[in-house]
Design brief:
The protein contains 9 helices and 8 strands. The chain has 305 residues and is α/β, with parallel strands linked by helices. It has a single domain (16-295), classed as NAD(P)-binding Rossmann-like Domain (Rossmann fold, 3-Layer(aba) Sandwich). Strands 3-2-1-4-5-6-7-8 form an 8-stranded mixed sheet, with helices on both faces. Helix 3 runs parallel beside helix 4 (115-131). The longest helix has 23 residues, at 170-192. The protein starts with 18 loop residues before the first strand and ends in a 10-residue tail after the last helix. It holds the Pfam family adh_short. Belongs to the short-chain dehydrogenases/reductases (SDR) family. GO terms for molecular function: oxidoreductase activity.
Length: 305
């Protein structure tokens, strides 16, 4: 059911004095998210792999916008970026884990992780863990991680072949990475809850017109393009669930925001439910332990009760 009053960027409270770090913010959803926050007064940091493209994106925004080099496919780059950000900012109010890759051909990150799992989940896990100390004492601070409707399409986490070394399916690997985004958010929120200052929230954009689908197999492109013409909303509309999760005063930790239309494809950003697998506590904790082991990053918050 659609809300009678749609939530728009006009509903974003004044962000003056707040610092927002947004990954993958030079294009698509990240660009629209950064643009809207900067327009409302936030100091926005575009954390991007290509700083030249980041500078071009920043030039198209109004407000206080900076660029930070960050390659989520490299733990060394993530550590360097986190160090830079902590030296530049005493506090971070918003960390928006937006960057992602989708249905890529089989490939690995610099550290040997399957590219989609390594970028979409492990890269953001490592970044969040290393930046969280700058957020824990900041009232109203939030970690917002962008998932996808695709989290429902690949089944459970493939514990027996987490890096897809034996048999690779690009859509299932994408789905696993997006399911991991949600499991990470829910476990992080439980760890943050006792402190009461920082919350973890998730969002998804529905079907939006961005460059994310550029790696889909060529045979699927005509059908995807036809479906997108009928279903897809603009990148600006697709960014609204993220923006609401990041700024709405009524947001609660552990919530998941997405469009309210049929199939959550498009519409007004509201609280939605993720699939049953994403709420499995044992699976969340197992993923957390494996993620710490793989990234060698531990968080300054204790295990959840």
């Amino acid at each position: 059911m659609t809300d009678r009053t749609a939530w728009t960027t006009a509903d974003i409270p004044d962000q003056t004095g707040r610092t927002a770090v947004i990954t993958g913010a030079n294009t698509g959803l990240g660009f629209e998210t950064a643009k809207a926050l900067a327009a409302r007064g936030a100091r926005v940091v575009l954390a991007v792999r290509d700083t030249g493209k980041g500078a071009q994106a920043a030039a198209r925004m109004t407000g206080d916008v900076e660029v930070q080099e960050l390659d989520l496919t490299s733990l060394a780059s993530i550590a360097a970026a986190a160090g830079d950000l902590k030296s530049r900012f005493e506090r971070i109010d918003l960390l928006i884990n937006n960057a992602g890759v989708m249905t890529t051909p089989k490939a690995t990150t610099a550290d040997g992780f399957e590219l989609q799992f390594g970028t979409n989940h492990l890269g953001h896990f490592a970044l969040t863990g290393q930046l969280l100390e700058t957020m824990l004492d900041v009232p109203g601070s939030r970690v917002v991680t962008v998932s996808s409707n695709g989290h429902k399409m690949g089944g459970a986490i493939h514990w027996d072949d987490l890096q897809w070394e034996r048999r690779y399916n690009r859509m299932s690997a994408y789905s696993q990475s997006k399911l991991a985004n949600l499991m990470f958010t829910y476990e992080l929120q439980r760890r943050l809850a006792p402190r009461g200052t920082t919350v973890a929230v998730a969002a998804h954009p529905g079907t939006s017109s961005t460059e994310l689908g550029r790696n889909l197999p060529q045979a699927l492109q005509p059908a995807v393009n036809r479906a997108a013409a009928l279903l897809a909303q603009s990148a600006a509309a697709g960014a609204l669930p993220t923006l609401r999760a990041a700024t709405d005063p009524g947001v609660l930790g552990g919530q998941y925001y997405g469009p309210d239309g049929i199939g959550q494809q498009r519409g007004n950003p509201v609280v939605v439910a993720s699939n049953a697998l994403s709420y499995d506590l044992a699976q969340q904790r197992r993923l957390w332990a494996v993620s710490e082991e793989l990234t060698k990053v531990t968080f300054p918050v204790p295990v959840s009760a």
